[in-house]
């Protein structure tokens, strides 16, 4: 019996010894070492401030061509979709009746001038006779009335001649502005009428050209607050520059200038309109085209560029990030952002120069976690170039 008990005790000690050799010394439950994290040092800098706004291309000037007189189109003297200059002839109407009206008005004027001359002679004669009391005062008054009536008839005849000449000139329909003319809505032989509803053609001035932008009143107030608090600065007298991105994603070569902002906020959408002007010699921008515009607002003198990968949002929607404290702890900070540039958030409050921002390994930590900071670098695409041991995969290979 005693021998059996001794054998059992020896077997138990042997099993315990094997187990100790395989597993080695065990860590107390819940104990772990510091977490390695990748950090970069933050430094304040002057960061350009811009806003992205949707926009629509609008012609610099638009004129709808309509006839001022009735007539039959005798000739069309422009090339559709071509450039025209102000004053250039576009349509020629049958002008024979207008020429006849000019001739008739000219003859009526001559007749009125002759009547005025005769009335003037009669009045001058009667005025001399009245001085010697050879005629009555009534006769002189009648002569004066006849002269005044003849002079008035002459003025009417002159006005009618001017009207006839204007109508004759309007028989040739001319371009009111420089620009590109569209398709003609009438052909030779068509009857057109004065001030008709339908335009004969439309001329659009496209060089330079406008781009109408839309922004919210909330954003406008935020920008004003940034200026008043000194977070946003701009040189006096410098006109904000505007850069366009076309519908195909390509950037428009020329930069524009912000010209005006409508001082009315829409009651339905809470937005207001801005207008920028761009050169358009190559006619790349066409009226009606939708674009994206980046408006240069100035620069933020003491801002930080923080990689987007390092910024998270809490349950309240606030932006947060981790920094490495001096005592080797992960410290959670709430920051204020003001837009983004490339792969970086622009942070204007919540961090200081010299803070060591945690950009890698933050998925494994929380506020107060013990960490081992490792200096890393981030390329222009926001990718960490140097790896840390805690980022190794299951196969032992480091992950970027």
TrEMBL record:
Key words, A-Z: Signal
Every Multidrug resistance protein MdtA-like barrel-sandwich hybrid domain range: 62-203
Keyword match rRNA-binding: no
SUPFAM superfamilies referenced in this protein's UniProt entry, alphabetically: HlyD-like secretion proteins (SSF111369)
Coiled coil: none
Region forming the signal peptide: 1-20
Domain Multidrug resistance protein MdtA-like alpha-helical hairpin per the UniProt entry, residue ranges: 103-169
Compartment list: Cell envelope
GO biological process: bile acid and bile salt transport; response to antibiotic
Superkingdom field: Bacteria
GO MF annotations in UniProt: transmembrane transporter activity
Matching Pfam families: Beta-barrel_RND (PF25944), BSH_RND (PF25917), HH_MFP_RND (PF25876), RND-MFP_C (PF25967)
Statement: the UniProt record of this protein carries the keyword Signal: yes
Multidrug resistance protein MdtA-like C-terminal permuted SH3 domain span: 302-364
Gene Ontology CC entries for this record: plasma membrane
Residue ranges of domain Multidrug resistance protein MdtA-like beta-barrel in the record: 208-298
PANTHER family documented for this protein: ACRA/E-RELATED COMPONENT OF DRUG EFFLUX TRANSPORTER, MULTIDRUG EFFLUX PUMP SUBUNIT ACRA-RELATED
Family: Belongs to the membrane fusion protein (MFP) (TC 8.A.1) family.
Protein name: Membrane fusion protein, multidrug efflux system
Organism of origin: Mesorhizobium australicum
Taxonomic lineage of the native organism: Bacteria, Pseudomonadati, Pseudomonadota, Alphaproteobacteria, Hyphomicrobiales
